UniProtKB/TrEMBL annotation:
Domain Enoyl reductase (ER) span(s) in chain numbering: 8-343
Family: Belongs to the zinc-containing alcohol dehydrogenase family.
Record protein name field: Zinc-dependent alcohol dehydrogenase family protein
Species the sequence originates in: Streptomyces tropicalis
Pfam families (alphabetical): ADH_N, ADH_zinc_N
Region described as Disordered: spans on this chain: 1-20
SUPFAM superfamilies: GroES-like, NAD(P)-binding Rossmann-fold domains
Cofactor entry: Zn(2+)
Stored InterPro entries: ADH-like_C (IPR013149), ADH-like_N (IPR013154), ADH_Zn_CS (IPR002328), ER (IPR020843), GroES-like_sf (IPR011032), NAD(P)-bd_dom_sf (IPR036291)
Key words, A-Z: Metal-binding, Oxidoreductase, Zinc
Keyword Zinc in annotation: yes
Length: 356
């Protein structure tokens, strides 16, 4: 089969690789029908995630059909259409028993396209299939469902739920990439008073508005002052960090009200300063997290009911074998306007769904 293989920083290719086979009786083999590229894959290609060994097939999000299962798999069978979650779960360890699957100690967690071959291929082996794939409702098309493998549960769990968004809140989302936009969309489910998006890119702020942000602010134009003005000097109830650089984390701690929540989603490569000399007196809650995907079944029901704006986030589609082109478009988001790019067998045409 073909897969997108990491060969070390700056080197990768869509090339022939061995077909995956069942290794453990809890495995399933999935034929990939739709797959997407994550910002984290770009981090891997830059060399920011050194655990990824050269030779690994990338990708941790997919929709496909089960073609083979090991003898211990009980909940899915060949022919089932499934969502492959970005998080694999053994189901038995202490963390899995607490639904903290991202921290799985039994060989799960984020392993696809990280520690083992991933989903950017024609087929993928999914360990612990019973808890690591979700049977898909027919009402959710592949292109929409694939966004529930990572970005929607991440934004919802690590941003909105950790941030404890409540009715009437002022919510600020810093970073309006796919994750920040999904955070805006899922924060709306809690009827906040207002959502403010902060970014440096005008196109991203426009996307934030169309996904339900009530106000937008350029990160370079004193967004903390805008938030103070909107909240009679108090600050926001909840601030969600969806960029992953020290400046934006520190900005979040300046925009939150006393007693409020800062929910960090961004993957940080550098230390950020925690200004305890100012913050100790402000009763803040700061949360961090890797997604667990415990919310995926709920999100799937909501997607089937048309309650999630998944299709608005897909800007480009490609056939699977044009993976490199898809990476190029996704990697140059500032020029191409890409949010999520989706690849798949039945998606024959190259389509810019929302061209610039
Ligand atoms: N915690 C988790 O489990 C988890 C899972 C997936 C992704 N992530 C992380 O979430 C973050 C967001 O992911 P994404 O795919 O949306 O990334 P992205 O790179 O597409 O989006 C980031 C956005 O931040 C904006 N930005 C850059 N610098 C800024 C600044 N100084 N001020 C304000 N905005 C700025 C960019 O214009 C862009 O719109 C990344 O760090 C990603 O690695 C975390
Ligand atoms: Zn991801
Ligand atoms: Zn586990």
């Amino acid at each position: 089969m073909k897969g997108y293989v990491f060969h070390g920083p700056g080197q990768s290719a869509w090339e022939e690789v061995p077909d995956p086979g069942i290794k453990e009786p809890t495995d399933a083999i999935v034929r990939v029908d739709a797959v997407t590229i994550c910002g984290t894959d770009l981090h891997i290609l830059k060399g920011d995630v050194p655990e990824v060994q050269p030779g690994t097939v990338l990708g941790h999000e997919a929709v496909g059909e089960i073609v083979e299962v090991g003898g211990d798999v009980r909940t899915v069978r060949p022919g089932d259409r499934v969502l492959v979650s970005c998080i694999t779960a053994c189901g038995r360890c202490r963390y899995c028993r607490e639904a903290a699957y991202g921290q799985c100690l039994g060989g799960g967690g984020w392993i696809l396209g990280h520690l083992i071959d991933g989903t950017q291929a024609e087929y993928v082996r999914v360990p612990y299939a019973d808890l690591s794939v979700h049977t898909l409702p027919a009402a959710v098309p592949d292109r929409d469902a694939v966004l529930l493998a990572d970005i929607f549960p991440t934004a919802y769990e690590v941003g909105v739920l950790n941030g404890r968004v409540r009715p009437g809140d002022t919510v600020v989302v810093v970073g309006a990439g796919p994750i920040g936009l999904a955070a805006i969309a899922t924060a709306r489910l809690f009827a906040p008073e207002r959502i403010v998006a902060v970014d440096v890119a005008a196109a991203r702020l426009e996307a934030a508005r169309s996904l339900g942000a009530d106000a937008v602010a350029d990160a370079g134009e004193a967004p903390d002052q805008l938030i103070a003005d909107l909240t009679t000097g108090l600050g926001a109830d909840v601030v969600i960090e969806a960029v992953g650089v020290p400046e934006t984390f520190e900005l979040c701690t300046r925009m939150v009200r006393a007693g409020g929540h800062v929910a960090n989603i961004g993957v940080h490569g550098r230390p950020a300063t925690l200004h305890l000399e100012d913050l100790w007196i402000r009763n803040l809650t700061i949360t961090t997290g890797l997604v667990d995907t415990h919310s995926t079944p709920t999100l799937l029901r909501m997607a089937a009911a048309g309650r999630l704006p998944t299709s608005e986030l897909v800007t480009h589609t490609f056939p699977l074998d044009r993976m490199q082109e898809a990476y190029d478009v996704f990697g140059a988001a500032a020029d191409t306007g890409a949010l999520k790019v989706v690849l798949g067998g039945p998606l024959r045409e190259v389509v810019a769904v929302q061209p610039d």
